[in-house]
Amino acid sequence: MLALRKINFFPLATLALLGGCAATEPSRSDDMGPLAPAAEQFIASPAPSASTARIPQAADVLAHEIVPSTITLVAHQQYSPADALAELEQRARDRNPRLTRLYHEYQSAVAKSQYVDKLPDPRFGVNAFGNALETASGSQRANMAFSQAVPWLARLRADEQRAVFDAYAIHAELEAEALRVQAAVRTSWYRLYVLARQIEIAEANQQLLKSLIDVANARIATGAASQGDVLLGTLELSQLEERLLTYRRQRQGVEAELNRLTAQPAGTHIASPQTLSPILPEANAEQMTLVALQNQPEIEAAQMRTQASRWGVEVARLMRRPEFVLSASYYPTDNNRPPSTIVDVGQDPWALGAQVSIPIWREKYDAIENEAKWKHQAAHNSVEELTDRYEALIVDLLAEAHRAHETAMLYQATILPQARQTLAADQEAYSNGTVEFDRVIRDYRSLLTLEVGYHQAIGDLATSLAKLSQAAGQDIALTGLPGSN
Protein backbone atom coordinates (compact mmCIF):
# COMPACT_ATOMS: atom_id res chain seq x y z
CA MET A 1 0.00 0.00 0.00
CA LEU A 2 1.27 3.45 -0.79
CA ALA A 3 2.58 5.43 2.14
CA LEU A 4 0.29 8.27 3.26
CA ARG A 5 1.05 11.09 5.67
CA LYS A 6 -0.89 11.33 8.93
CA ILE A 7 -4.06 13.42 8.22
CA ASN A 8 -6.36 13.01 11.28
CA PHE A 9 -10.07 13.87 10.47
CA PHE A 10 -9.78 17.01 8.33
CA PRO A 11 -11.55 15.49 5.25
CA LEU A 12 -14.48 14.30 7.37
CA ALA A 13 -14.85 17.68 9.04
CA THR A 14 -14.71 19.48 5.70
CA LEU A 15 -17.41 17.30 4.16
CA ALA A 16 -19.59 17.60 7.24
CA LEU A 17 -19.38 21.39 6.96
CA LEU A 18 -20.40 21.23 3.30
CA GLY A 19 -23.26 18.86 4.06
CA GLY A 20 -24.63 21.09 6.78
CA CYS A 21 -24.97 24.16 4.54
CA ALA A 22 -28.42 25.09 3.28
CA ALA A 23 -29.09 24.18 -0.31
CA THR A 24 -30.88 27.39 -1.16
CA GLU A 25 -31.77 30.75 0.25
CA PRO A 26 -35.52 30.62 0.92
CA SER A 27 -37.66 33.15 -0.88
CA ARG A 28 -39.70 33.77 2.27
CA SER A 29 -38.93 34.35 5.91
CA ASP A 30 -38.66 31.32 8.18
CA ASP A 31 -41.59 32.58 10.21
CA MET A 32 -44.09 32.98 7.44
CA GLY A 33 -47.09 33.64 9.63
CA PRO A 34 -50.41 34.02 7.80
CA LEU A 35 -49.72 34.08 4.11
CA ALA A 36 -51.10 37.31 2.71
CA PRO A 37 -53.54 36.70 -0.15
CA ALA A 38 -52.00 37.39 -3.54
CA ALA A 39 -53.22 40.60 -5.09
CA GLU A 40 -52.31 40.08 -8.70
CA GLN A 41 -52.65 36.52 -9.90
CA PHE A 42 -50.81 34.87 -12.74
CA ILE A 43 -53.02 32.73 -14.95
CA ALA A 44 -50.60 30.56 -16.85
CA SER A 45 -51.06 29.77 -20.50
CA PRO A 46 -51.39 26.07 -21.26
CA ALA A 47 -48.20 24.02 -21.29
CA PRO A 48 -45.53 26.74 -21.41
CA SER A 49 -41.97 25.74 -22.11
CA ALA A 50 -40.35 25.29 -18.71
CA SER A 51 -36.93 26.13 -20.12
CA THR A 52 -37.90 29.45 -21.70
CA ALA A 53 -40.89 30.83 -19.74
CA ARG A 54 -40.23 32.53 -16.41
CA ILE A 55 -42.33 30.98 -13.69
CA PRO A 56 -43.82 33.47 -11.18
CA GLN A 57 -42.37 32.91 -7.73
CA ALA A 58 -44.07 33.37 -4.38
CA ALA A 59 -41.98 36.48 -3.73
CA ASP A 60 -43.25 37.97 -7.01
CA VAL A 61 -46.84 37.49 -5.88
CA LEU A 62 -46.19 39.15 -2.53
CA ALA A 63 -44.42 42.09 -4.17
CA HIS A 64 -47.58 43.37 -5.87
CA GLU A 65 -49.77 45.78 -3.96
CA ILE A 66 -53.48 45.07 -3.64
CA VAL A 67 -55.34 46.95 -6.34
CA PRO A 68 -58.20 48.86 -4.69
CA SER A 69 -61.67 48.00 -5.92
CA THR A 70 -63.35 50.60 -8.08
CA ILE A 71 -66.69 49.75 -6.43
CA THR A 72 -67.59 50.64 -2.87
CA LEU A 73 -69.81 48.11 -1.14
CA VAL A 74 -71.07 49.40 2.20
CA ALA A 75 -70.27 47.39 5.31
CA HIS A 76 -72.88 45.14 6.90
CA GLN A 77 -75.50 46.73 9.14
CA GLN A 78 -75.73 45.80 12.82
CA TYR A 79 -78.94 44.18 13.99
CA SER A 80 -81.18 44.16 17.04
CA PRO A 81 -80.53 42.65 19.51
CA ALA A 82 -77.29 44.64 19.40
CA ASP A 83 -74.44 42.89 17.65
CA ALA A 84 -76.30 39.57 17.68
CA LEU A 85 -75.53 38.66 14.08
CA ALA A 86 -71.97 39.96 14.30
CA GLU A 87 -71.47 37.88 17.45
CA LEU A 88 -72.77 34.75 15.72
CA GLU A 89 -70.48 35.35 12.74
CA GLN A 90 -67.45 35.85 15.00
CA ARG A 91 -68.29 32.73 16.97
CA ALA A 92 -68.56 30.74 13.75
CA ARG A 93 -65.17 32.04 12.56
CA ASP A 94 -63.58 31.12 15.89
CA ARG A 95 -65.21 27.74 16.52
CA ASN A 96 -66.45 26.20 13.30
CA PRO A 97 -64.77 22.76 13.05
CA ARG A 98 -64.24 22.91 9.30
CA LEU A 99 -62.53 26.29 9.55
CA THR A 100 -60.35 24.92 12.34
CA ARG A 101 -59.39 21.92 10.21
CA LEU A 102 -58.47 24.10 7.23
CA TYR A 103 -56.41 26.37 9.48
CA HIS A 104 -54.44 23.38 10.72
CA GLU A 105 -53.93 22.18 7.15
CA TYR A 106 -52.64 25.65 6.26
CA GLN A 107 -50.18 25.62 9.14
CA SER A 108 -49.04 22.16 8.03
CA ALA A 109 -48.43 23.46 4.49
CA VAL A 110 -46.49 26.44 5.85
CA ALA A 111 -44.30 24.09 7.87
CA LYS A 112 -43.67 21.95 4.79
CA SER A 113 -42.55 24.96 2.77
CA GLN A 114 -39.90 25.65 5.40
CA TYR A 115 -38.06 22.34 5.01
CA VAL A 116 -38.74 21.09 1.49
CA ASP A 117 -35.76 22.98 0.01
CA LYS A 118 -33.21 21.62 2.47
CA LEU A 119 -30.58 18.96 1.76
CA PRO A 120 -31.18 15.38 2.91
CA ASP A 121 -29.55 14.40 6.19
CA PRO A 122 -25.94 13.23 5.91
CA ARG A 123 -25.10 9.61 6.66
CA PHE A 124 -22.36 8.22 8.91
CA GLY A 125 -21.44 4.55 8.95
CA VAL A 126 -18.97 2.23 10.68
CA ASN A 127 -17.86 -1.20 9.46
CA ALA A 128 -16.11 -3.58 11.87
CA PHE A 129 -14.15 -6.39 10.21
CA GLY A 130 -14.53 -9.89 11.61
CA ASN A 131 -10.99 -10.62 10.56
CA ALA A 132 -8.64 -7.67 10.49
CA LEU A 133 -7.34 -6.55 7.13
CA GLU A 134 -3.60 -7.05 7.26
CA THR A 135 -1.66 -4.40 5.37
CA ALA A 136 2.00 -3.49 5.22
CA SER A 137 1.39 -0.45 7.43
CA GLY A 138 -0.65 -2.32 10.02
CA SER A 139 -3.90 -4.13 10.80
CA GLN A 140 -7.20 -2.49 9.90
CA ARG A 141 -10.06 -3.67 12.13
CA ALA A 142 -12.76 -1.13 11.09
CA ASN A 143 -13.50 1.79 8.82
CA MET A 144 -15.74 4.86 9.04
CA ALA A 145 -17.61 6.58 6.22
CA PHE A 146 -19.50 9.88 5.94
CA SER A 147 -21.71 10.72 2.93
CA GLN A 148 -23.97 13.56 1.84
CA ALA A 149 -26.53 13.32 -0.96
CA VAL A 150 -26.81 16.53 -3.01
CA PRO A 151 -29.90 16.71 -5.26
CA TRP A 152 -30.01 19.13 -8.17
CA LEU A 153 -30.30 22.46 -6.34
CA ALA A 154 -32.63 24.05 -8.91
CA ARG A 155 -35.07 21.22 -8.26
CA LEU A 156 -35.00 21.96 -4.53
CA ARG A 157 -35.81 25.61 -5.26
CA ALA A 158 -38.69 24.57 -7.52
CA ASP A 159 -39.98 22.23 -4.81
CA GLU A 160 -39.91 25.12 -2.36
CA GLN A 161 -41.89 27.39 -4.70
CA ARG A 162 -44.47 24.66 -5.28
CA ALA A 163 -44.88 24.16 -1.52
CA VAL A 164 -45.27 27.92 -0.93
CA PHE A 165 -47.98 28.21 -3.59
CA ASP A 166 -49.74 25.14 -2.14
CA ALA A 167 -49.77 26.90 1.24
CA TYR A 168 -51.22 30.05 -0.36
CA ALA A 169 -53.91 27.92 -1.99
CA ILE A 170 -54.94 26.37 1.33
CA HIS A 171 -55.01 29.82 2.93
CA ALA A 172 -57.33 31.04 0.16
CA GLU A 173 -59.51 27.94 0.62
CA LEU A 174 -59.72 28.81 4.31
CA GLU A 175 -60.93 32.32 3.42
CA ALA A 176 -63.45 30.91 0.93
CA GLU A 177 -64.82 28.53 3.56
CA ALA A 178 -65.05 31.41 6.05
CA LEU A 179 -67.19 33.30 3.52
CA ARG A 180 -69.38 30.23 3.01
CA VAL A 181 -69.89 29.80 6.76
CA GLN A 182 -70.65 33.52 7.14
CA ALA A 183 -73.25 33.33 4.35
CA ALA A 184 -74.79 30.22 5.96
CA VAL A 185 -75.02 31.99 9.33
CA ARG A 186 -76.68 35.02 7.74
CA THR A 187 -79.07 32.89 5.71
CA SER A 188 -80.18 30.99 8.82
CA TRP A 189 -80.49 34.28 10.73
CA TYR A 190 -82.74 35.71 8.01
CA ARG A 191 -84.74 32.49 8.00
CA LEU A 192 -85.32 32.97 11.74
CA TYR A 193 -86.70 36.43 10.96
CA VAL A 194 -89.12 35.06 8.36
CA LEU A 195 -90.29 32.25 10.66
CA ALA A 196 -90.76 34.68 13.56
CA ARG A 197 -92.92 36.92 11.39
CA GLN A 198 -94.89 33.90 10.10
CA ILE A 199 -95.54 32.79 13.68
CA GLU A 200 -96.61 36.31 14.69
CA ILE A 201 -98.94 36.58 11.69
CA ALA A 202 -100.45 33.17 12.41
CA GLU A 203 -101.03 34.04 16.08
CA ALA A 204 -102.59 37.39 15.13
CA ASN A 205 -104.86 35.64 12.65
CA GLN A 206 -105.89 33.21 15.39
CA GLN A 207 -107.31 36.17 17.28
CA LEU A 208 -108.96 37.44 14.11
CA LEU A 209 -110.57 34.05 13.47
CA LYS A 210 -111.79 33.82 17.06
CA SER A 211 -113.42 37.25 16.72
CA LEU A 212 -115.05 36.15 13.45
CA ILE A 213 -116.35 33.00 15.16
CA ASP A 214 -117.74 35.16 17.99
CA VAL A 215 -119.54 37.32 15.42
CA ALA A 216 -120.90 34.17 13.74
CA ASN A 217 -122.18 32.84 17.09
CA ALA A 218 -123.87 36.17 17.79
CA ARG A 219 -125.56 36.08 14.41
CA ILE A 220 -126.64 32.47 14.96
CA ALA A 221 -128.28 33.57 18.21
CA THR A 222 -130.31 36.12 16.26
CA GLY A 223 -131.07 33.62 13.49
CA ALA A 224 -129.10 35.60 10.91
CA ALA A 225 -126.46 32.89 10.30
CA SER A 226 -126.19 29.11 10.23
CA GLN A 227 -124.11 26.73 12.33
CA GLY A 228 -122.01 26.07 9.23
CA ASP A 229 -120.34 29.48 9.63
CA VAL A 230 -119.03 28.51 13.06
CA LEU A 231 -117.90 25.09 11.83
CA LEU A 232 -116.06 26.69 8.89
CA GLY A 233 -114.34 29.14 11.24
CA THR A 234 -113.39 26.35 13.64
CA LEU A 235 -111.92 24.33 10.76
CA GLU A 236 -109.82 27.31 9.67
CA LEU A 237 -108.65 27.76 13.26
CA SER A 238 -107.50 24.12 13.39
CA GLN A 239 -105.64 24.46 10.10
CA LEU A 240 -103.96 27.60 11.39
CA GLU A 241 -102.88 25.73 14.53
CA GLU A 242 -101.35 23.04 12.31
CA ARG A 243 -99.47 25.71 10.38
CA LEU A 244 -98.17 27.16 13.64
CA LEU A 245 -96.83 23.75 14.66
CA THR A 246 -95.01 23.51 11.32
CA TYR A 247 -93.48 26.97 11.70
CA ARG A 248 -92.26 26.20 15.23
CA ARG A 249 -90.71 22.91 14.15
CA GLN A 250 -88.97 24.68 11.25
CA ARG A 251 -87.65 27.27 13.67
CA GLN A 252 -86.13 24.55 15.83
CA GLY A 253 -84.40 23.10 12.76
CA VAL A 254 -82.97 26.49 11.71
CA GLU A 255 -81.85 27.16 15.27
CA ALA A 256 -80.08 23.78 15.39
CA GLU A 257 -78.31 24.56 12.10
CA LEU A 258 -77.12 27.91 13.45
CA ASN A 259 -75.83 26.17 16.55
CA ARG A 260 -73.99 23.66 14.38
CA LEU A 261 -72.33 26.44 12.38
CA THR A 262 -71.26 28.21 15.57
CA ALA A 263 -70.23 25.01 17.42
CA GLN A 264 -72.81 25.51 20.18
CA PRO A 265 -75.03 22.86 21.81
CA ALA A 266 -77.90 22.03 19.47
CA GLY A 267 -80.53 23.13 21.98
CA THR A 268 -79.11 26.62 22.58
CA HIS A 269 -81.81 29.25 22.09
CA ILE A 270 -81.12 32.00 19.55
CA ALA A 271 -83.33 35.08 19.55
CA SER A 272 -84.91 36.02 16.23
CA PRO A 273 -84.26 39.47 14.71
CA GLN A 274 -87.22 41.80 15.07
CA THR A 275 -86.56 43.82 11.91
CA LEU A 276 -84.82 43.16 8.63
CA SER A 277 -84.31 46.00 6.16
CA PRO A 278 -82.39 45.05 3.02
CA ILE A 279 -81.96 47.18 -0.09
CA LEU A 280 -80.36 46.43 -3.42
CA PRO A 281 -76.70 47.35 -3.98
CA GLU A 282 -75.92 50.04 -6.52
CA ALA A 283 -73.42 47.89 -8.43
CA ASN A 284 -74.60 45.97 -11.49
CA ALA A 285 -73.71 42.39 -12.39
CA GLU A 286 -70.68 43.36 -14.48
CA GLN A 287 -69.22 45.46 -11.67
CA MET A 288 -69.83 42.73 -9.10
CA THR A 289 -68.14 40.21 -11.37
CA LEU A 290 -65.05 42.43 -11.48
CA VAL A 291 -65.11 42.63 -7.68
CA ALA A 292 -65.39 38.84 -7.47
CA LEU A 293 -62.45 38.34 -9.83
CA GLN A 294 -60.34 40.56 -7.56
CA ASN A 295 -61.57 39.33 -4.17
CA GLN A 296 -63.09 35.84 -4.44
CA PRO A 297 -60.73 33.55 -2.49
CA GLU A 298 -61.96 30.40 -4.25
CA ILE A 299 -60.75 31.83 -7.58
CA GLU A 300 -57.53 32.90 -5.87
CA ALA A 301 -57.06 29.36 -4.53
CA ALA A 302 -57.46 27.94 -8.04
CA GLN A 303 -54.91 30.44 -9.36
CA MET A 304 -52.47 29.46 -6.61
CA ARG A 305 -53.01 25.78 -7.45
CA THR A 306 -52.25 26.64 -11.07
CA GLN A 307 -48.96 28.24 -10.09
CA ALA A 308 -48.11 25.31 -7.82
CA SER A 309 -48.76 22.89 -10.68
CA ARG A 310 -46.62 25.01 -12.99
CA TRP A 311 -43.75 24.68 -10.56
CA GLY A 312 -44.59 20.99 -10.51
CA VAL A 313 -43.83 20.93 -14.24
CA GLU A 314 -40.47 22.51 -13.48
CA VAL A 315 -39.77 19.90 -10.80
CA ALA A 316 -40.67 17.11 -13.23
CA ARG A 317 -38.37 18.59 -15.89
CA LEU A 318 -35.49 18.74 -13.42
CA MET A 319 -35.99 15.11 -12.44
CA ARG A 320 -33.79 14.35 -15.45
CA ARG A 321 -30.86 16.06 -13.77
CA PRO A 322 -28.41 13.78 -11.95
CA GLU A 323 -28.05 13.59 -8.19
CA PHE A 324 -24.68 13.52 -6.48
CA VAL A 325 -23.37 11.77 -3.40
CA LEU A 326 -20.16 13.05 -1.80
CA SER A 327 -18.39 10.76 0.63
CA ALA A 328 -15.34 10.52 2.86
CA SER A 329 -13.88 7.32 4.33
CA TYR A 330 -11.39 6.80 7.12
CA TYR A 331 -9.50 3.57 7.96
CA PRO A 332 -7.93 3.42 11.44
CA THR A 333 -4.72 1.33 11.25
CA ASP A 334 -2.85 -0.37 14.11
CA ASN A 335 0.81 0.44 14.62
CA ASN A 336 1.76 -3.25 14.83
CA ARG A 337 4.44 -3.56 12.16
CA PRO A 338 8.21 -3.24 12.39
CA PRO A 339 9.59 0.13 11.30
CA SER A 340 9.88 0.39 7.53
CA THR A 341 11.45 2.79 5.08
CA ILE A 342 8.85 1.85 2.43
CA VAL A 343 5.55 2.52 4.22
CA ASP A 344 4.50 4.64 7.18
CA VAL A 345 3.63 2.07 9.81
CA GLY A 346 0.39 2.93 11.64
CA GLN A 347 -0.59 5.59 9.10
CA ASP A 348 -4.43 5.89 8.85
CA PRO A 349 -5.56 5.98 5.21
CA TRP A 350 -8.52 8.20 4.12
CA ALA A 351 -10.37 8.72 0.88
CA LEU A 352 -12.79 11.18 -0.73
CA GLY A 353 -15.39 9.93 -3.18
CA ALA A 354 -18.22 11.09 -5.39
CA GLN A 355 -21.13 9.26 -7.01
CA VAL A 356 -23.61 10.47 -9.58
CA SER A 357 -26.93 9.04 -10.72
CA ILE A 358 -27.38 8.38 -14.43
CA PRO A 359 -30.97 9.17 -15.57
CA ILE A 360 -30.96 6.95 -18.64
CA TRP A 361 -34.63 5.88 -18.67
CA ARG A 362 -36.00 8.53 -20.98
CA GLU A 363 -39.52 7.11 -21.23
CA LYS A 364 -39.91 7.21 -17.44
CA TYR A 365 -38.94 10.87 -17.23
CA ASP A 366 -41.11 11.75 -20.24
CA ALA A 367 -44.06 10.19 -18.42
CA ILE A 368 -43.26 12.09 -15.21
CA GLU A 369 -43.14 15.38 -17.12
CA ASN A 370 -46.34 14.64 -19.05
CA GLU A 371 -48.13 13.85 -15.79
CA ALA A 372 -47.12 17.22 -14.36
CA LYS A 373 -48.16 19.07 -17.53
CA TRP A 374 -51.61 17.46 -17.56
CA LYS A 375 -52.09 18.41 -13.90
CA HIS A 376 -51.13 21.97 -14.79
CA GLN A 377 -53.66 22.00 -17.65
CA ALA A 378 -56.39 20.73 -15.30
CA ALA A 379 -55.56 23.37 -12.69
CA HIS A 380 -55.60 26.10 -15.36
CA ASN A 381 -59.01 24.94 -16.59
CA SER A 382 -60.38 25.05 -13.04
CA VAL A 383 -59.66 28.80 -12.93
CA GLU A 384 -61.67 29.35 -16.10
CA GLU A 385 -64.49 27.14 -14.80
CA LEU A 386 -64.70 29.05 -11.51
CA THR A 387 -64.64 32.41 -13.29
CA ASP A 388 -67.54 31.38 -15.54
CA ARG A 389 -69.46 29.88 -12.60
CA TYR A 390 -69.18 32.98 -10.44
CA GLU A 391 -70.13 35.24 -13.32
CA ALA A 392 -73.32 33.23 -13.88
CA LEU A 393 -73.99 32.97 -10.13
CA ILE A 394 -73.76 36.73 -9.63
CA VAL A 395 -76.16 37.39 -12.51
CA ASP A 396 -78.62 34.84 -11.07
CA LEU A 397 -78.38 36.14 -7.49
CA LEU A 398 -78.73 39.76 -8.57
CA ALA A 399 -81.81 38.87 -10.64
CA GLU A 400 -83.28 37.05 -7.63
CA ALA A 401 -82.55 40.07 -5.43
CA HIS A 402 -84.34 42.37 -7.90
CA ARG A 403 -87.27 39.97 -8.03
CA ALA A 404 -87.55 39.82 -4.23
CA HIS A 405 -87.20 43.60 -3.91
CA GLU A 406 -89.88 44.32 -6.50
CA THR A 407 -92.17 41.72 -4.92
CA ALA A 408 -91.77 43.25 -1.45
CA MET A 409 -92.42 46.76 -2.79
CA LEU A 410 -95.50 45.54 -4.66
CA TYR A 411 -96.85 43.86 -1.53
CA GLN A 412 -96.11 46.94 0.58
CA ALA A 413 -97.47 49.60 -1.77
CA THR A 414 -100.46 47.91 -3.38
CA ILE A 415 -101.44 44.34 -2.59
CA LEU A 416 -101.42 44.32 1.23
CA PRO A 417 -103.35 47.63 1.66
CA GLN A 418 -106.00 46.42 -0.80
CA ALA A 419 -106.27 43.02 0.90
CA ARG A 420 -106.66 44.63 4.33
CA GLN A 421 -109.32 47.01 3.01
CA THR A 422 -111.19 44.13 1.39
CA LEU A 423 -111.18 42.06 4.59
CA ALA A 424 -112.29 45.02 6.72
CA ALA A 425 -115.11 45.84 4.31
CA ASP A 426 -116.33 42.24 4.13
CA GLN A 427 -116.13 41.87 7.93
CA GLU A 428 -118.41 44.87 8.31
CA ALA A 429 -120.68 43.60 5.55
CA TYR A 430 -120.90 40.19 7.23
CA SER A 431 -121.90 41.85 10.49
CA ASN A 432 -124.68 43.56 8.55
CA GLY A 433 -125.64 40.31 6.85
CA THR A 434 -124.86 41.43 3.29
CA VAL A 435 -122.08 38.88 2.52
CA GLU A 436 -121.59 35.21 3.34
CA PHE A 437 -119.15 33.94 5.96
CA ASP A 438 -117.15 31.93 3.42
CA ARG A 439 -116.31 35.15 1.57
CA VAL A 440 -114.84 36.61 4.76
CA ILE A 441 -112.82 33.39 5.21
CA ARG A 442 -111.49 33.71 1.66
CA ASP A 443 -110.43 37.28 2.40
CA TYR A 444 -108.74 36.11 5.59
CA ARG A 445 -106.88 33.32 3.76
CA SER A 446 -105.76 35.73 1.07
CA LEU A 447 -104.46 38.28 3.59
CA LEU A 448 -102.64 35.57 5.56
CA THR A 449 -100.92 34.32 2.41
CA LEU A 450 -99.99 37.84 1.29
CA GLU A 451 -98.57 38.88 4.68
CA VAL A 452 -96.45 35.72 4.80
CA GLY A 453 -95.37 36.34 1.20
CA TYR A 454 -94.30 39.90 2.00
CA HIS A 455 -91.95 38.87 4.78
CA GLN A 456 -90.76 35.92 2.71
CA ALA A 457 -89.80 38.36 -0.06
CA ILE A 458 -87.83 40.45 2.45
CA GLY A 459 -86.08 37.30 3.66
CA ASP A 460 -85.35 36.24 0.07
CA LEU A 461 -83.80 39.64 -0.66
CA ALA A 462 -81.61 39.49 2.45
CA THR A 463 -80.57 35.92 1.61
CA SER A 464 -79.68 36.91 -1.95
CA LEU A 465 -77.52 39.76 -0.63
CA ALA A 466 -75.77 37.38 1.78
CA LYS A 467 -74.97 35.02 -1.08
CA LEU A 468 -73.88 37.96 -3.26
CA SER A 469 -71.47 38.97 -0.50
CA GLN A 470 -70.08 35.45 -0.51
CA ALA A 471 -69.76 35.40 -4.30
CA ALA A 472 -68.19 38.88 -4.48
CA GLY A 473 -65.71 38.07 -1.73
CA GLN A 474 -66.62 41.16 0.30
CA ASP A 475 -69.61 42.55 2.16
CA ILE A 476 -72.75 44.09 0.66
CA ALA A 477 -74.94 46.50 2.62
CA LEU A 478 -78.21 45.76 4.35
CA THR A 479 -79.77 49.14 5.12
CA GLY A 480 -83.19 50.66 5.42
CA LEU A 481 -86.21 49.60 3.41
CA PRO A 482 -89.08 51.84 4.56
CA GLY A 483 -91.88 50.08 6.39
CA SER A 484 -90.31 46.62 6.46
CA ASN A 485 -91.12 46.02 10.12
DSSP summary: helix tally: 10
Task: Name the structural class.
Answer: alpha+beta
Tell me the Rg in angstroms.
38 Å
CATH homologous superfamily grouping of the domain at 81-122 and 153-322 and 363-472: Outer membrane efflux proteins (OEP)
Task: Indicate the CATH topology of the domain at 81-122 and 153-322 and 363-472.
Answer: Outer membrane efflux proteins (OEP)
Mean pLDDT: 81
- Strand composition percent: 5-15%
CATH class of the domain at 81-122 and 153-322 and 363-472: Mainly Alpha
Topology as a string of helices (H) and strands (E): HHHHEEHHHHEEHH
Percent helix: 55-70%
Spatial ordering of strands, largest sheet = 1-2-3-4
Structure write-up:
The protein is an alpha+beta fold and 485 residues long. It has a domain at 81-122 and 153-322 and 363-472: Outer membrane efflux proteins (OEP) (Up-down Bundle), CATH 1.20.1600. It contains ten helices and four strands. It has helices at 10-20, 58-63, 84-95, 97-113, 153-221, 227-261, 285-295, 297-318, 362-431, 437-472, and strands spanning 123-135, 138-150, 324-330, 350-356. The chain has a four-stranded antiparallel β-sheet, covered by helices on one side. Helix 5 runs antiparallel to helix 8 (297-318) and helix 8 (297-318) packs antiparallel against helix 9 (362-431). The longest helix is centred in the last third of the chain and has 70 residues, at 362-431.
